[in-house]
Automatic annotation (TrEMBL):
Domain N-(5'phosphoribosyl) anthranilate isomerase (PRAI): 7-213
GO biological process, one term: L-tryptophan biosynthetic process
An example Gene Ontology molecular-function term: phosphoribosylanthranilate isomerase activity
Species this protein is from: Variovorax paradoxus
HAMAP family for this protein: PRAI (MF_00135)
Record-stated family: Belongs to the TrpF family.
Keywords of this entry: Amino-acid biosynthesis, Aromatic amino acid biosynthesis, Isomerase, Tryptophan biosynthesis
Catalytic reaction list: N-(5-phospho-beta-D-ribosyl)anthranilate = 1-(2-carboxyphenylamino)-1-deoxy-D-ribulose 5-phosphate
Keyword Methyltransferase (UniProt): no
Descriptive protein name: N-(5'-phosphoribosyl)anthranilate isomerase
Pfam families: PRAI (PF00697)
Gene responsible for this protein: trpF_2
Amino acid sequence: MKRTRVKICCIGNPAEAEMAIAAGADALGLVAAMPSGPGPISDEAIARIVADVPPPTATFLLTCEIEAHAIADHVRRTGANTVQVVNHIDARESERLAVLLPTIRRVQVLHVEDHTVLDLADAYSPFVHALLLDSGRPSAAVPELGGTGRVHDWAISADLVRRSPRPVFLAGGLTPDNVGTAIREVQPFGLDLCSSVRTRGHLDSGKLATFMEAVRRADVPL
């Protein structure tokens, strides 16, 4: 069976971390300071949550830093085992980060605005462990670096998945109603979600269970 991994983002406290793990999440997303979007918490809070997460659950630090040394320092402050770079940074910084953090999993976010994202994927792939496709607008007056709740063009995402030498996560507007279509059309390695499993900003166990069941139903034999 093909099993699509699930990352639950915007984890705000240890109770939400426990809820996500109990529901079967493969990874937790911990959002540091951002120019916009939901779920940011302090580096101290991230470090406290990370310290209690059992293996094999991955802990993703979402950082908007754009220089390798600043990203590396951010990871060291929080203790996360994976860093998710949410900005389109210079590929040379990605290369430097691989040298600074050789034992940390590195994930580069690609915001799918048009087909030029395919060139970005080629530039980053040699230096990261995975790519994550989202629906932000990094060039907006107030940069959107994730958490938009918008679906982007999955045809572009599917093309990128076929071309990518790295595993690819899909984010942006995923719900129990559309996740089956997303899995069939894009065939991502994993999914990343935040708002659709929350009620009034808090992780909702019922919505989380519904989403996870929809993913299980959508997974099919290879």
